[in-house]
Design goal:
α3 packs antiparallel against α4. The chain has five helices and six strands; from the N terminus they run βββαααββαβα. It has a four-stranded antiparallel sheet with strand order 4-5-3-6. The chain has a two-stranded antiparallel sheet with strand order 1-2. It is an alpha+beta fold. The protein folds into two domains: about 140 residues, Transposase IS200-like (Alpha-Beta Plaits); about 45 residues.
Length: about 200
């Protein structure tokens, strides 16, 4: 994985509740979570604080200010996920295996998969897009297939994943190294045991 965000190249930007930037053949850090993984009151409180901070720190933001944003909001949100809210369906090995299989299925064809881990209520993955494949299409493919299979396996219906995913273009080898370590340390930090992760045999 050796292609990172390039300020000199075109950026395709979209915004729903979260901003999404994309460039061709770069490395992304993505997190997608189960629909019940963060209680609504916590999510609303977090969003209110984030919106206030963004209004107080308008664009353009320095790298230092961007780091503060991620410390205050990106990683705080991940702490909410690690708290283990919701049914935590992915703690079931058979369901985690469905997700693990989907992540690996097109590795080397549509993307190069880096470090990843299936946590009880969310998934982290590093991947580099190949050819003209877009990150949103890759994420949609993972979530759509696994939602159908998880509902079939559990005899449930309805929404499995939160509609929107978090994704970020990795900026540098140093940031990639930090994210790789974060993914590897995530189960220990959350005090859980996982059986499906990229660094396990």
């Amino acid at each position: 994985m050796d292609s990172f965000f390039d300020w000199n190249q075109k950026v395709d930007a979209t915004k729903r509740r979260l901003p999404h930037w994309s460039q061709k053949r770069v490395v992304y850090f993505a997190t997608f979570r189960l629909a019940d993984s963060v209680p609504k009151p916590i999510l609303e409180q977090w969003k209110e604080r984030k919106d206030f901070w963004l209004a107080e720190h308008p664009e353009p933001r320095s790298e230092e200010v961007q780091r503060e944003y991620h410390r205050l909001f990106t990683w705080t949100f991940h702490d909410f996920l690690d708290a283990g809210h919701g049914d935590c369906l992915l703690a079931q090995p058979s369901l985690a295996q469905i997700v693990a299989g989907a992540l690996r299925f097109f590795d080397g064809q549509r993307y190069r998969l880096g470090e990843w881990v299936v946590m009880p209520n969310h998934v982290h993955a590093l991947f580099q897009t190949m050819d003209d494949f877009k990150p949103e299409d890759i994420l949609h493919s993972w979530k759509s297939f696994t939602a159908k299979e998880i509902n079939k396996s559990t005899r449930r219906t309805g929404q499995v994943w939160q509609h929107e995913s978090y994704d970020r273009i990795v900026r540098s080898p140093a940031e990639l190294s930090r994210i790789e370590k974060y993914i590897q340390d995530n189960p220990k930090k959350a005090r859980i045991r996982v059986s499906h992760a990229s660094w396990l045999p």
